[in-house]
Amino acid sequence: MTTNNTRNFTEFAWSSGTKGLVQSSFFWGYLMTQIPGGFMACRYPANRVFGTAITASAFLNLFIPWSCYVGPSMVMFIRILQGLIEGVTYPACHGIWRYWAPPLERSRLATLAFCGSYAGAVVGVPLSGWLTLAFGWQSCFYFYGKVPLV
Question: Which helix (H) or strand (E) is 48 found in, with range?
Fold first, then answer.
């Protein structure tokens, strides 16, 4: 038999509306750079656009715990920046496949690559739970901020 050990932490006195704004702020930036990301992937090497975006977003992840103590506006600012940066990743992936995959295999390889984002969630969510339980909620941001930089 399993038990529910969920605890309600109220470290930050943020309203439900504020939490919703913080959680959605990433997508505000992400939405705005999809089309420019495609142009960037055509103008510059797509693999460098992708790598730079992942590295910069991971670096910004390191500042999320600190920004929570500053206030929700700072968290939203960092998350919007992450969204602006990561908005170029999917268009850059198409640019990478354009040069690196044989024409008849592009759709299969692109599908496989994009499934990786879902596989990442399957691995990342339980890992985040374990990190939070073992080391505190900040550990997730430090882990996901440092690992891509290695």
Answer: helix 46-61
Cβ proximity of 57 and 88 under 8 Å = no
| pLDDT at position 105 | 87
Q: Considering just the CA atoms, what is the radius of gyration of the chain in Å?
A: 18
Q: How far apart are CA 64 and CA 91, in angstroms?
A: 26
Q: How far apart are CA 150 and CA 135, in angstroms?
A: 21
Residue type at 25 in one-letter notation? S
Token pair 């990433």 in the structure block, residue: 26
pTM: 0.85
CB 57 within 8 A of CB 85: yes
Compute how many other C-beta atoms are within 10 angstroms of the C-beta atom of residue 69: 10
Residue 72 neighbours by CB under 8 Å, 6+ apart: 12, 14, 18, 21, 22
